[in-house]
Amino acid sequence: ILCAGIVFQDVFHLNWKKSIILVTILSVAICPWILQSSDYFFMVQNGYSCLLGPTVGVLVADYYFFRKKKLNVEDLYEGTKYNFFKGYSIIAIIALAVGAIVAACFFDYSWLVGFPVSLVLYTVLKKFWKVEEAAEKAQGVYIAR
Which has the higher per-residue pLDDT, 137 or 13? Predict the structure, then answer.
């Protein structure tokens, strides 16, 4: 509840007490005890995995293969070094979307399929497709490499 309360506080500009009350109400309203005891538990879990696996694939590929495990925390918040085309990485979005679609086709193994598909696709696109560099020249914006 703590992390969700902080997110609600930031996103909806609520004070701490109101955000915790809202998170608590939503936590009870989704009835997790019914979901856990029903046949839909694995369907919901695999549905989340269709997006989570590809997301982790993109993050791992970027962090380990391209950034070599080095991040500048100050630049993460200032939006200078890690800024992309209008705030989005086109290559990451493509890899995430393709990974999610492929993962949905193999629904029972969605995380295990989506993760490597997105990881490999992101790595290949980032290495060989220079669309973000073209966007940098067109927009005059610094794009991270």
Answer: 13
